[in-house]
Write a structure and sequence with these properties.
Two copies of one chain form a homodimer. Chain A is built from twelve helices and 17 strands. The first copy, chain A, has about 400 residues and is of the alpha+beta class. In chain A, strands 3, 4, 5, 6, 7, 8, 15, 16 and 17 form a nine-stranded mixed beta sheet that branches. A four-stranded antiparallel beta sheet of chain A has the order 11-13-9-14. Chain A has a two-stranded antiparallel ribbon with strand order 1-2. The interface between A and B is large, with 56 and 56 residues.
Chain lengths: ~400, ~400
């Protein structure tokens, strides 16, 4: 099996982390100066690892193995959330880069090749999974024409032109890839809490999102008798508590559900809320569980409508769960058991990743390493070095095993 | 007993309603041009009714009976909320004005006198009950120096100077008044729902107000397991529902309690709220009931603190309930039973009124007439004409009976 070089891998991590550094993390928004510098750095590193590297017309950095025969595609993303961690995305790319070098350096691995890709804008500054969707052929020119930066409004076309990303967009080459593997930090604390060092991702959750509006009767908080009230805020509080009580009965072991936003109108201390609104979402990797939660939610809304307020529900989105490919998972599991016996587990990913997009075009799987304290999207995000090294070696073993199968 | 003149009374109402008219209501914010015009109009009407009328240094319009002997003080307020009803405040003044004329016109009532006062700024544009507090000696020069308009910031002193209200401030003349009577629209729907035409106000509620803050842990709504969450929004939703379940057990029959404001932070659909805040208040006319509700609330906060979030409570205010004087209530009740047999009831006032201030200086009582649909602080506020006329006659009867006692 190919043997990775931890010093080389960690030195790369230190170098990439210096680009756009913010405290102990980085700030590399998509197509910012720091992000462009990071893409150029990665292209150079891929080139130095023996891959033919390009930055394509959507900003994807893709390094292709020059050899013949089937390959595996390894990838993740290189931009970051503002003032966020240095590992989210970057770690998976550096692990892929190191695996490419380990294969190249091992005479026993001659003929085993990987391509390594940084998918542009996984962090959704300009849209939803633009880079990976472009690669599998799901990003239209029309969508690119209309895409703008989420806060400063810069058109995507302008940002690409100014960055010099003017070439054709790379696409799936039929028959080239046996599959896609993405390593990533967990961004939650499940592995850490369970004492595991490796997560083998069985699927990426689907997410159902709703907006709920309660229509009551705005009135004087002093003179309006309790029996005469139609308190829209109370109606939604009851719904939130009912969800908290009922969802555990229908949810899966790793389902999550969240009310992240509540607005009362007019929102004054002495006025009974006449209108209230909340945002609700739930996630699971199993479509049957999602459907069960959806039915339970519908029941709770029907129940809420028997109160004094009318309750309206707007379904915002229903993303499909993405299933990872069993043959890839099995290979990851063999390598994990070899290097971290009994300290790995199968688990769903509760966050979205490019792997959910790639899984529509080829077999895909993901490998998680633990996030210390479960922290992510914050500059204090971190993972123990030995876990990062362990994950890289397991990825290398798995790649070789899959390519030899 | 003095007999009121409904046509004269309703003609005055029509004339006063034309000052600052807005749709079927009025817009007469304190010391606005329309409000100044209304004060001048009222002073003239009081003068024409045989009273010595002045506008004092806080804008109170006070008409004093010139005769000797004890008097009753009748009053309410003349300014309105923006784009609000024509009756809130104004009705009580016009009823007082008509009672003064009815006494004057009835030879049997010779020597029975009333003073009529419009207390400035009951609607709290510049402060809290400025006019009536000034009259009972509770408004300091320092408070007047610092008072500014709640939205445009105009200093109270500037507004008074520009309106020409530069005289001394009127104060209680010891021994002059047997008591204070205020007639008002109910501003709720209790009388209407119960089929009553007159409410005899036993007390004005005290109000206890709180701000509650829940401190949780802001985190990713996808990757954070349910068991690991500290959801500040959920903590407050549970508190709201617990209040809804527990307060009926300790509240009085006419207690009210309200959560009018809820804010979640950061308030994004995919982020578990790390901090949440609400405004809570309850009101009752009985201090023992307020104390019971306060204790129940403290218990619920203690219970909430056993959850994953820390709950902080800030007590904003605790106003005292004001008890109305039994001898005045008994006289109102006799007159009500004569003119509206079995269609009157004793009740607390759930809204604040100048009577709660005057009750600190002399016996005080209030009379309510029904609000159609319970609507107030809106231009569509209304009361049936025959109820207004009925209330005026009952007030006249009561005044004569009290003055003769």
């Amino acid at each position: 099996m190919p043997v990775i070089d931890p010093r080389r891998f960690l030195a790369d991590l230190e170098e990439l982390s210096s680009i756009g550094r913010f405290k102990t993390g980085v700030s590399r928004p998509t197509f910012s100066a720091a992000d462009q510098q990071a893409r150029a750095w990665l292209a150079n590193r891929l080139h130095a690892a023996g891959l033919r590297a390009v930055i394509d017309g959507i900003g994807n950095v893709i390094g292709c193995s020059p050899g013949a025969g089937p390959k595996l595609l390894l990838g993740s993303h290189i931009e970051s959330q503002p003032e966020a961690g240095r590992l989210d995305g970057a770690l998976g790319l550096l692990m892929g880069l190191e695996v490419a070098r380990a294969l190249r350096d091992d005479p026993d691995c001659a003929g085993l090749g990987v391509d390594v890709a940084a998918w542009a804008d996984e962090e959704a500054y300009y849209g939803s999974f633009l880079g990976s969707r472009s690669f599998i052929g799901e990003l239209t020119e029309a969508e690119m024409d209309s895409a703008v930066h989420r806060t400063d409004g810069t058109p995507l076309r302008t940002a690409l032109r100014e960055a010099g990303y003017s070439g054709p967009r790379a696409t799936v080459e039929q028959g080239r890839h046996l599959g896609y593997l993405e390593a990533h930090v967990e961004q939650g604390d499940y592995l850490e809490q369970a004492g595991h060092r490796i997560g083998i991702v069985t699927g990426i959750v689907g997410s159902w999102q709703y907006r709920v509006i309660a229509y009551g009767q705005q009135n004087h908080a002093g003179t309006t008798r309790m029996a005469a009230r139609k308190d829209a805020g109370l109606a939604l509080a009851k719904l939130i508590v009912a969800i908290d009580q009922q969802f555990p009965k229908v949810a899966g072991a790793r389902s999550v559900w969240t009310v992240g936003r509540v607005v009362l109108e007019p929102g004054a201390p002495s006025v009974i809320p006449g209108r209230a609104e909340l945002s609700f979402q739930f996630r699971d990797a199993d479509i049957a569980v999602l459907q069960r939660m959806g039915a339970a939610f519908d029941d709770l809304i029907a129940e809420a409508n028997r109160g004094p307020c009318a309750i309206e529900t707007i379904r915002l989105s229903q993303t499909r769960p993405a299933l990872m490919a069993e043959n890839l998972l099995a290979n990851l599991e063999v390598a994990a058991e070899l290097h971290a016996p009994a300290r790995h587990t199968r688990m769903p990913s509760a966050a979205g990743h490019d792997a959910q997009i790639l899984s529509r075009a080829m077999p895909a799987a993901m490998l998680f390493v633990p996030s210390i304290g479960g922290i992510s999207h914050h500059w204090s995000e971190d993972t123990h070095c030995d876990d990062m090294v362990l994950g890289t070696q397991i990825l290398a073993d798995s790649v070789a095993a899959i390519l030899r199968a």
